[in-house]
Amino acid sequence: MENEKYLNDISEIKNMMSQSSRFISLSGLSGVLAGIYSLIGAWFAYKTIYYDTSTLGNYRNLIISKEAVERLFIIAITIIILSMITGVLLSMKKAKKSNDSLWNNASKRLVINFLIPLATGGFFILFLVEKEILSLVAPLTLIFYGLACVNASKYTLGDVRYLGITMIFLGLLSTWFLGYGLLFWALGFGVCHILYGSIMYFKHDRI
Description:
Elements: H1 2-21, H2 28-50, H3 66-97, H4 105-130, H5 137-152, H6 159-174, H7 181-205
Helix pairs in contact: 2-3, 2-7, 4-5, 5-6, 5-7, 6-7
């Protein structure tokens, strides 16, 4: 009995330490919704790229006008803002339900470690857009986002690490099929977010 109580106490201490070092209020449902937003955005981007009169050429040699690039930028920013707002609101709801704080040391470390690779990739991609090297934009968004997820995963749910690895793999694979960047983008940010978000929701949110 004493040994069993001792083991239970150790397990409890380990759980408390894990909760204090990891942000466990991350909502899986927000990942699902982010994936849906991304698929809708990918559809609008597809319409802009392939059905807009300002774009010329086939899928391998597209000539995209400045106006079309601006619309694509607006679509991307809109998806990012919607995903961030949804993530914050649903994580707040989950944290409140479990009597946890949304903004604590673990969530601060999560945000910092997530933003370092993401901001680096963002500036690099803006440089490529300015130089009109658009074929690498889709692969690099996947790769840098994946690196951000892997880097931040040690401060939140472990499933985020596998999401990041999947994104990196898709990004690298996309560099071999540059003409299909939008398809890989939709597969990564859309389908993978829905898949991993659903797994996280059923594993953690419904407990």
